[in-house]
Amino acid sequence: MSLILNFESLTLPIYPYMSKINSLLPHKIIGVAVIWNEQEQILIDRRRPEGAMGGLWEFPGGKIEPGETISECIQREISEELGIVIEVGEHLITIDHTYTDLRVTLTVHHCRHVTGVPQPLESDEIRWVTLEELEEFTFPKANIQIIAALKGMGSREWGVGGDEGDEGAGEEGEEELLMINAQCPMPHAQ
């Protein structure tokens, strides 16, 4: 006796199982800085070509270490990667993103450049850019939501512009490359 099974018509919903699949992937918590200067520009860096997502632009930051707060992580990573001192301000957005072999949680804060001249110590290149100029650079998919959160807002609205009345200053896996094609209006002084 032989049994023939036909799986062509068998359909199983995958959605209920995605959380289980995601929980099996390595998970990294990343502190990310949107660093503003006095000219209302944002600092971005380009990943080295030989690493994961090589050549893509990103907002600087890095992995949290045990016992470290997100603010401490961001300050340490920016000092290590760029050689500057920043003031960590308001929380902008938290993003959970799953690559093919890695899950990341990006906790993003507005930051103010305090002292030092930025150097690409752990990246290929760095640039100060306006919100409008962000669309000219290719970012990893997870960074797209950061840019979307920045649209239509200016640094003064987050307390990092230094105006009177402001509340304080304020890796691995395949990745789809996305080109930002959005209009990001510059803020106007109030």
TrEMBL record:
GO terms for biological process: DNA repair; DNA replication. Residues 25-153 form the Nudix hydrolase domain. InterPro entries: Mutator_MutT, MutT-like, MutY_C, Nudix_hydrolase, NUDIX_hydrolase-like_dom_sf, NUDIX_hydrolase_CS, NUDIX_hydrolase_dom. 8-oxo-dGTP binds at R47, E58, F59, P60, G61, N143. PROSITE patterns: NUDIX, NUDIX_BOX. Mg(2+) binds at G61, E81. It catalyses: 8-oxo-dGTP + H2O = 8-oxo-dGMP + diphosphate + H(+). SUPFAM superfamilies: Nudix (SSF55811). Keywords: DNA damage, DNA repair, DNA replication, Hydrolase, Magnesium, Metal-binding, Mutator protein. Its EC number is 3.6.1.55. Coiled coil: none annotated. Its cofactor is Mg(2+). GO terms for molecular function: 8-oxo-7,8-dihydrodeoxyguanosine triphosphate pyrophosphatase activity; 8-oxo-7,8-dihydroguanosine triphosphate pyrophosphatase activity; 8-oxo-dGDP phosphatase activity; 8-oxo-GDP phosphatase activity; metal ion binding. Belongs to the Nudix hydrolase family. This is 8-oxo-dGTP diphosphatase. It comes from Nostoc commune NIES-4072.
